[in-house]
């Protein structure tokens, strides 16, 4: 334990591409630990077994490392309070579910998914928020024992006070009061014995001696459940700090439909991690104009968690570009710059794979930039005219682009085989030849109708870059189609 005793964590769920929002929360925690001489730890919250994958977990680790947010304890390096992956901690949680049942703070619920769906539909139809109605709350102990012994599936739910409110002080929101009747009787242990997020999160924060919980504001409404669990167990609760979410310039929630949100997108485009951290860190410091360029050490010196805004951190890409440019020009030595460029080009084997595909397709090395340059470009700068040579009409191209995009999102593991299989399936479903479907994709992804093989190129570029290129292509083609679309 450090002198200050401060222990904070980032607890990502590996259910998708690592998001800049995760880097933002991780950076806050990292700076908080640094400021207080405390410890920053990484815990993987993979209680949602259907959506968590080892591939995404690896990506989270890689992305946070790329950001320079090194943790002191974590699933890859261990530590005194491990394991640090919730799916490896199942046996740790079981007795706690039992303890709550024995103390009368929780109850077994045998309601089937069908009954719960009916119940929610009825509540919705009556204009009420969906919430467990407490049917199993009144079951007699003997009946519960008999049904469990008979092997009937059940979950463990927490009891919630019938009246009053949960009052607490949040480090960002100040005094908060949430009425208990708006809090659901949360499932704590699922039928398969795995805990839900809420149960595992509280137990782990306690066992891992977390002193401050800083996370996104979307968890503010869950605090009553968490506080109640701390009380039921008789544990001291941590200090809660709920940070406002990052938003698009129009104040809408940052989402990949509007702006690229994957950390891997920014690394692939050649943003440098210090600049991204500098950009995100500016939301946590009070500085005068002209003082924006800050290293991690400077950020931690100026770090001021007392004065955070509730208004939301605007993800202003132009500001990020400006800072990134300044980092490149003002902070990197000539040698560092050269190393960065080479490291970046070789990241994820981008350059190596591009050269492998190019070797059989050129007669002079100087043809490489035209052939494979699209793999490194941050922006292809395409307009509608780029699609003019394609035989399909703009309407048809737009239909292809718009059909392909959501289909690509459903690919779990982003690789050549899965991309090819998906695009073949899309072509079949659309009743079109594969050739017709891939023609506009070629242009959208590479900027030209003659280039490296498409599926390989998409695999090399990565999901987040392809997503953005297809989105920009749709916009470019939509401008040809005119207002009727
Ligand atoms: N697993 C949660 C998430 O990914 C963590 C929330 C928390 O920090 O408590 O958002």
Automatic annotation (TrEMBL):
<keyword id="KW-0067">ATP-binding</keyword>
<dbReference type="InterPro" id="IPR020751">
    <property type="entry name" value="aa-tRNA-synth_I_codon-bd_sub2"/>
</dbReference>
<feature type="short sequence motif" description="'HIGH' region">
    <location>
        <begin position="12"/>
        <end position="22"/>
    </location>
</feature>
<feature type="short sequence motif" description="'KMSKS' region">
    <location>
        <begin position="253"/>
        <end position="257"/>
    </location>
</feature>
<keyword id="KW-0963">Cytoplasm</keyword>
<dbReference type="GO" id="GO:0005524">
    <property type="term" value="F:ATP binding"/>
</dbReference>
<protein>
    <recommendedName>
        <fullName>Glutamate--tRNA ligase</fullName>
        <ecNumber>6.1.1.17</ecNumber>
    </recommendedName>
</protein>
<dbReference type="InterPro" id="IPR000924">
    <property type="entry name" value="Glu/Gln-tRNA-synth"/>
</dbReference>
<dbReference type="InterPro" id="IPR004527">
    <property type="entry name" value="Glu-tRNA-ligase_bac/mito"/>
</dbReference>
<dbReference type="GO" id="GO:0004818">
    <property type="term" value="F:glutamate-tRNA ligase activity"/>
</dbReference>
<comment type="similarity">
    <text>Belongs to the class-I aminoacyl-tRNA synthetase family. Glutamate--tRNA ligase type 1 subfamily.</text>
</comment>
<dbReference type="InterPro" id="IPR020058">
    <property type="entry name" value="Glu/Gln-tRNA-synth_Ib_cat-dom"/>
</dbReference>
<comment type="function">
    <text>Catalyzes the attachment of glutamate to tRNA(Glu) in a two-step reaction: glutamate is first activated by ATP to form Glu-AMP and then transferred to the acceptor end of tRNA(Glu).</text>
</comment>
<feature type="domain" description="Aminoacyl-tRNA synthetase class I anticodon-binding">
    <location>
        <begin position="337"/>
        <end position="472"/>
    </location>
</feature>
<dbReference type="GO" id="GO:0005829">
    <property type="term" value="C:cytosol"/>
</dbReference>
<dbReference type="InterPro" id="IPR045462">
    <property type="entry name" value="aa-tRNA-synth_I_cd-bd"/>
</dbReference>
<dbReference type="Pfam" id="PF19269">
    <property type="entry name" value="Anticodon_2"/>
</dbReference>
<keyword id="KW-0547">Nucleotide-binding</keyword>
<dbReference type="GO" id="GO:0008270">
    <property type="term" value="F:zinc ion binding"/>
</dbReference>
<keyword id="KW-0436">Ligase</keyword>
<dbReference type="InterPro" id="IPR008925">
    <property type="entry name" value="aa_tRNA-synth_I_cd-bd_sf"/>
</dbReference>
<comment type="subunit">
    <text>Monomer.</text>
</comment>
<feature type="binding site">
    <location>
        <position position="256"/>
    </location>
    <ligand>
        <name>ATP</name>
    </ligand>
</feature>
<feature type="domain" description="Glutamyl/glutaminyl-tRNA synthetase class Ib catalytic">
    <location>
        <begin position="6"/>
        <end position="322"/>
    </location>
</feature>
<keyword id="KW-0030">Aminoacyl-tRNA synthetase</keyword>
<dbReference type="InterPro" id="IPR001412">
    <property type="entry name" value="aa-tRNA-synth_I_CS"/>
</dbReference>
<dbReference type="InterPro" id="IPR033910">
    <property type="entry name" value="GluRS_core"/>
</dbReference>
<dbReference type="InterPro" id="IPR014729">
    <property type="entry name" value="Rossmann-like_a/b/a_fold"/>
</dbReference>
<dbReference type="GO" id="GO:0006424">
    <property type="term" value="P:glutamyl-tRNA aminoacylation"/>
</dbReference>
<keyword id="KW-0648">Protein biosynthesis</keyword>
<dbReference type="InterPro" id="IPR049940">
    <property type="entry name" value="GluQ/Sye"/>
</dbReference>
<dbReference type="GO" id="GO:0000049">
    <property type="term" value="F:tRNA binding"/>
</dbReference>
<dbReference type="Pfam" id="PF00749">
    <property type="entry name" value="tRNA-synt_1c"/>
</dbReference>
């Amino acid at each position: 334990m450090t002198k200050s005793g401060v222990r904070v964590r980032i607890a990502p769920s590996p259910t998708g591409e690592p998001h800049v929002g995760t880097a933002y929360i991780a950076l806050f925690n990292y700076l908080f630990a640094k400021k207080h001489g405390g410890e920053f730890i990484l815990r993987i919250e993979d209680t949602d077994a259907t959506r968590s994958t080892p591939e995404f977990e690896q990506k989270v680790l890689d992305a946070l490392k790329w950001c320079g947010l090194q943790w002191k304890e974590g699933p890859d390096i261990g530590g005194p309070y491990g394991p640090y992956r919730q799916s490896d901690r199942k046996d740790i949680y079981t007795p706690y579910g039992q303890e709550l049942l024995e103390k009368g703070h929780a109850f077994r619920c045998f309601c089937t998914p069908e009954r719960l769906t009916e119940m929610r539909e009825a509540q919705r139809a009556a204009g009420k928020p969906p919430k467990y109605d407490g049917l199993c709350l009144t079951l007699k102990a003997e009946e519960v024992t008999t049904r469990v012994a008979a092997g009937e599936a059940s979950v463990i739910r927490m009891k919630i006070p019938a009246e009053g409110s949960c009052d607490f002080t949040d480090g960002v929101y100040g005094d908060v009061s949430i009425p208990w009747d708006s809090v659901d009787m949360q499932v704590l242990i699922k039928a398969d014995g795995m805990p839900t997020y809420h149960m595992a999160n509280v137990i782990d924060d306690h066992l891992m001696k977390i002193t401050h919980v800083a996370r996104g504001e979307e968890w503010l409404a869950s605090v009553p459940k968490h506080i109640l669990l701390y009380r039921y167990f008789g544990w001291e609760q941590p200090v809660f700090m709920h940070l406002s979410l990052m938003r698009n310039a129009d104040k809408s929630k940052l989402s990949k439909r509007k702006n690229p949100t994957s950390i891997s997108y920014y690394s692939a485009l050649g943003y440098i991690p210090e600049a991204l951290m500098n950009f995100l860190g500016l939301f946590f410091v009070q500085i005068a104009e002209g003082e924006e360029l800050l290293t991690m050490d400077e950020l931690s010196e100026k770090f001021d968690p007392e004065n955070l805004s509730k208004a939301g951190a605007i993800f202003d890409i132009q500001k990020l570009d400006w800072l990134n440019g300044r980092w490149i020009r003002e902070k990197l030595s000539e040698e560092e710059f050269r190393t960065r460029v080479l490291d970046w080009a070789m990241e994820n084997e981008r350059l190596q794979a591009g050269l492998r595909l190019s070797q059989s397709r050129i007669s002079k090395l100087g043809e490489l930039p035209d052939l494979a340059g699209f793999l490194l470009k941050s922006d292809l700068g395409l307009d509608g005219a780029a699609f003019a040579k394609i035989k399909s009409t703009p309407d048809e191209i737009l239909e292809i682009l718009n059909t392909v995009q959501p289909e690509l999102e459903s690919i779990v593991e982003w690789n050549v085989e899965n991309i090819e299989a998906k695009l073949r399936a899309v072509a079949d479903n659309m009743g079109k030849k594969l050739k017709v479907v891939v023609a506009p994709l070629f242009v959208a992804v590479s900027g030209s109708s003659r280039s490296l093989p498409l599926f390989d190129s998409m695999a090399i570029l990565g999901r987040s870059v392809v997503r953005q290129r297809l989105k920009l292509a749709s916009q470019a083609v939509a401008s040809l189609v005119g207002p009727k679309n």
